[in-house]
Amino acid sequence: MWTSLFEKTTYQPAPARFEAGTGNIADAVGRRRRARLCRTGRHGKHAAYEHELLNYATAGLLTVPGLRLIGTAREKAGVLSFILDDIRTEDVGAALNQEGIAVRSGHHCAQPILRRMGVESTVRPSLALYNTCEEIDSLVAALLRIQAGRGHRGL
User: Fold this and answer.
1) 0.85 exceeded by pTM
2) Is residue 108 within 8 Å of 124, Cβ to Cβ?
3) Strands in 34-124 per DSSP E
4) Mean pLDDT value across residues 121-135
């Protein structure tokens, strides 16, 4: 059944095609840290802050013309996925990287669900306790510049 979903594979040019996957070490460390926070009572404050960041980022991203959020569940982690009309996700990721903004772009090893949502790849910023509203403002401003300068820098 799954093989019918993957009819073709397209590899990135070098050096991106050699990017190696790793085990989910961050999750293991995060679980331990979360358990410690739960014991000290700080977990709720941290989770509330991350949720505020998610709401702030969602509102900001929705101001970008041509931006479509992918996955808008009401209760979700601080991860946003989006596409910009007619701009490859890899190009958006590279342009953001040039501005010092770290995101992931591509299919995130989630091709079946992305296809179900009508896309092949997304741009994915992830929010955490150490992020700020000012950083989100920088992301939104950079996306507005990318939209305004579509004909420049290969976009």
Assistant:
1) no
2) yes
3) 67-70, 81-84, 104-106, 122-124
4) 93
